[in-house]
Prior knowledge:
This protein is an alpha+beta fold. It contains 19 helices and 40 strands. A hairpin with a 2-residue loop joins strand 22 and strand 23. Helix 13 crosses helix 14.
Amino acid sequence: MNTHRIRVGIDVGGTFTDAVAVDATTLELLGQVKVPTSHHHEDGVAHGIVEALDRLLEQTDCAPADVAFLAHGTTQATNALLEGDVATVGLIGIGTGPAAVLTRRLASFGKLELAPGKRLPLVYAHVTDPQDTAAVRSAVEQLKGEGAQVLVASQPFSVDRPEGEQTVLDAARPYGLPMTAAHEITSLYGLHKRTRTAVVNAAILPRMLATADLVDASITKAGVTAPLMVMRCDGGVMALGEMRRRPLLTVLSGPAAGVAGALMQERVSEGVFLETGGTSTDISVVRRGKVAVRHATILGKTSYLSSLDVRTVGVGGGSMVRIGEGRVTGVGPRSAHIAGLPYACFASPGQLRDAKVDTVRPMDGDPADYAVLDAAGGRFAVTMTCAANALGRVPEGDFARCDPESARAAIEPLAAHLGTDVATAATRILDAGIAQVKAVVDAMIRDYRLDKDTAVLVGGGGGAASVTPHLAHTSGMEGRIARHNEVISPIGVALALVREQVERIVPGATQEQILAIRAEAERAVVAQGAAAEGVEVEITVDPQTNTVRAVATGATELRTQDRSHRADDTERLHAAAASLKTDPAAVHVLAGTAAHTVYGTETRRRLRPTRRPIRIVDVDGVVRHHAADAHVETTTVSGAPEVLARLVGESTSYGDGGVRAPALRLLLGSRIADLSGVLDPQPLLALARSELRARAADEPVVAVLEVRS
């Protein structure tokens, strides 16, 4: 029997459920399986999850007890909303006077459209006094009589005074319905948006609870003792108990799994991740080692759900080529999969014999300009994958690689039709396909102010080779395809960290309030199984909106990678020099800890101040942070408070925009503590002191400061 401890990631897609096993120590991929997603089984998708796990354990020769971590991502919540397969929500509004006017307007959520012609099923009842138990129970009976399957209680200002919502739910508990209070879903102000987010969460709650119970019971029956985790839409995982409370956090988690894989496996610190399937490409950003997150739009309305900022383009590996007037006019959005046609490049040269180009209308309502080949072996679609193979863009061993002779035979008839050669025709196809992708990538680089000198394009998904290599070639950016790109999503699930976000609107937040919010986020991930000593918390204080946000992440166990893979001093130096785009001889070690080294150089520009760009490189030789101009100073835990007070005082700027403390990062032990989201010097120093707590007095601390203009 194998003695590996493994991390298992399972990604439940619309068609297939993919599962991977990753060595818990080295993070090496040990096995992967694919099974049909079991939508129509009596146990639903839970059956496919367990089947995938059983096959994975058999393939890797592991026992259920060897599973150290088990997580799954699912499209179930997203599909439920898209298809309108949701429960009827009973909304109880609370309040008198002006508050009653506000809450009665919430009944309009019943007009939200889930799918064409299908609205959110919602019934409304009002309670003036939450302490009036008889009135509350009468309201619940009314809602049950009108078909309510789940309850939501909402009251103005419940973020500050949650007692009313909680009292209503306590009185309704004997009726046995799943229920939630609006303040439990988000602690941000805005009655309308807060309640809408809670209502959508409630609509999928019964279905998700049923699935959670089935999966939990099945995993336990299989003998797995590791707690089951679920993928969130912001790139982390949460405990099953949290998913039962806030299933809405799993909406849009499909793309989040892929970028989590890129972040953890590929160690991307700055770049764009493109996950390409057969029909579309999901594009997301990693900036300074973190995924880009924003409040999601659900059912056409903004919500308080923080999710990955992902933008989807209708171009994938199976996208069909469109032609007209002797030229390539476009690619997609229709794919060979939807048209029910095989890719021409995966046919044998014999099947493509005597091929003639024709144009078709793949589906009713489509334009009749999609190119197909009618050949000896039948009808075939000409796709992005065909063009990428013909140009040699698909590397050996890739999921989408085909026989080069077949690839040329797939493009040759179209090239003749266009009056050109195979290479030119293939280039025109890829140019047309990536044009849409490039426009979105360029926009995201601008939106997030990525440093184009260090940003990389990373391709994932089975269709990665049809988009990313050609985009990198034409844009001049560095690009690569992720290892095991066809299973990057379940790898992301397997490697993802426990994540929790706490948001509060606190006008003029004090040091104590900011530290309390930080502690709350830290406690939340520890309660879900994260090892306390490895938790990192990023704090952002937005003075314009008075929002204090704490994002805590941590591993369910302290993972120690195989040290045989660690980079030596020379490799790390060359990684820094390549990122700095300078000669290694001009790069110097400025500071370091056991886990990170800070490299720097100088950039002298005529009539302008000298800049000191730096790179922080970890022990694996990966650039974890970069700055165009930074000050670096080494001290110890005991000396840090005085040193940091001096550095922050010297680097804080004052102007019409208010006080702006420097962006501060601390290298401590194995961590980079990112405090750059705090602009006020005093809370910044208080947070820095909290990071130093419980550390040895002589432990080295490296401070990296960037002055804000």
